[in-house]
Amino acid sequence: AADSAAAGPAMTHAEAAAKAQALLTELYQQLAESDTDAAEGRARQILGGLGFSQETMDGPTASLSGGWRMRVSLACALFGAPDLLCLDEPTNHLDLEAILWLQEYLAHCCEGQTLLLVSHDRAFLNAVCQETVELKQQQLRYFPGPYDAYVEAKAAAALASSRQAAALDKQRKHMEASISAAEKQARQAGDDKKLLQAASRKKKLEERHGMDRNAAGRKFKLNRDLAGYHDSKRPQVVLETADKPFDFSWPQPDTTRAGGPLLQLRSVG
């Protein structure tokens, strides 16, 4: 009785029939949108582009190796045409001919879809991507254009921030020298008023020295561009930190006890 109450009241025959009819209508609509008459031809076109022969297409998936099964999974993802297509290293199990077909397909046959692509193949990224997203230090940064444009933009930004940091450092040193000279003169003259002025200038230098433009290039405003608690009342130049280079070397193998081949295969196949 408790299970029946938890399941809710039973539907009447008319309600069940109406629900079944609505579900059937939805399924027919999905079939119409998927164009079932052309589905097999489209599937064969995708499989052919990924290197499958007609004989392999008609054979069982169980007879395929792991690399070819990965191609089947890729073909299923392409055939499904989802609104968001996520591909992680899709060229790993492809030969050159299949890679060239895939980049052409993604660049020209995925209209209306959003493609999220991760790849180590620079040429592939340049041929397919329209925007590059960098994930670094738990932050996402967006760069218009393919991978080469991203590299150029990063280099230009690094050079600009380096020059800006140098200019701010030069300005700060000049202001510190001016304040120190004013303090020295005030002490020699015993002028307390000028000493207070120098101390006020020093405090303002510590709090307000930094960039006078925001990220959009407009004049900096504290209440708009730097909300919350910060050590300074001006944004500071953030220099690009280079990624640590990856260094790898093969260790020297131990000397084998016996000469000759380590493994021999005879009468194989």
What topology does this entry show?
Layout: H1 2-7, H2 13-34, H3 36-49, H4 54-58, H5 66-80, E1 84-88, H6 96-108, E2 114-118, H7 122-128, E3 131-136, E4 139-144, H8 147-189, H9 192-208, H10 222-225
Parallel strand pairs: 1-2
Antiparallel strand pairs: 3-4
Helix pairs in contact: 3-5, 8-9
Strand order of the largest sheet: 1-2
Largest sheet, strands/sense/barrel = 2 strands, parallel
H/E topology pattern? HHHHHEHEHEEHHH
Give the low-pLDDT segments.
1-6
* Global structural class: mainly alpha
Proportion of beta-strand residues: 5-15%
Rg over CA atoms, rounded to whole Å, is: 33 Å
Structure description:
- The protein has 269 residues and is mainly α.
- The chain has helices spanning 2-7, 13-34, 36-49, 54-58, 66-80, 96-108, 122-128, 147-189, 192-208, 222-225, and strands at 84-88, 114-118, 131-136, 139-144.
- Helix 6 links the parallel strand 1 (84-88) and strand 2 (114-118).
- Helix 3 packs across helix 5 and helix 8 packs antiparallel against helix 9.
- The radius of gyration is 33 Å and the shape is flat.
- The relative contact order is 0.05.
- Residues 1-6 have low confidence and may be disordered.
Task: Name a few traits of the molecule.
two-stranded antiparallel ribbon; flat; single chain; mainly alpha; two-stranded parallel sheet; 269 residues; 10 helices; 8% strand
